[in-house]
Specification:
about 140 residues, alpha+beta, 6-stranded antiparallel beta sheet, about 25% strand, globular, DUF1499, DUF1499 domain-containing protein
């Protein structure tokens, strides 16, 4: 029974999936598509937006610490990086789905985007990931509450 449920869940999650080709520019400038599987600080549409990440004085000079916090997220590994940009691939434990998590330092704030590569809905996974990142940065006094 459990095997059937797992198989049905897998088919449900991937049945309506599509693959997307994204050109990474080392800058967060891509808005979310019209699917509930993405959140971003640059979005104006409520269902896709998350509050800004305003850096503290400590955070403005702590890019390496910010990167380390991001790398502590579950399933995180670096896909690309530059002086003020980080692209992480976050792989889910069960079905091995890959989500893209991006952080870019711009002036006195961080721009953040987290999006699923496949499927329609992410059941709030990307929003939870971004909020977990926010909470750790607040705890380490790298961003303002």
């Amino acid at each position: 029974m459990l095997l059937r449920f797992t198989l049905l869940l897998f088919l449900f999650l991937t049945g309506c999936s599509d693959t997307k080709t994204t050109s990474w520019t080392r800058s967060i400038n891509q808005l979310c598509e019209n699917k509930p599987n993405c959140v971003s600080t640059i979005e104006k549409r409520e269902q896709f937006s998350v509050k800004p990440f305003l850096l503290t004085a400590k955070g403005e000079h702590s890019w390496e610490e910010i990167k380390q916090v991001a790398l502590q997220l579950p399933g995180a590994k670096i896909a690309d990086q530059s002086d003020h940009y980080l692209h992480i691939e976050a792989t889910s434990k069960v079905f091995r789905f890959i989500d893209d998590f991006e952080v870019e330092k711009k002036a006195e704030q961080l721009q953040v985007r987290s999006a699923s590569r496949v499927g329609y809905s992410d059941f709030g996974v990307n929003r939870k990931r971004v909020e977990a990142f926010r909470n750790q940065l607040i705890k380490q006094e790298l961003i303002k509450q």
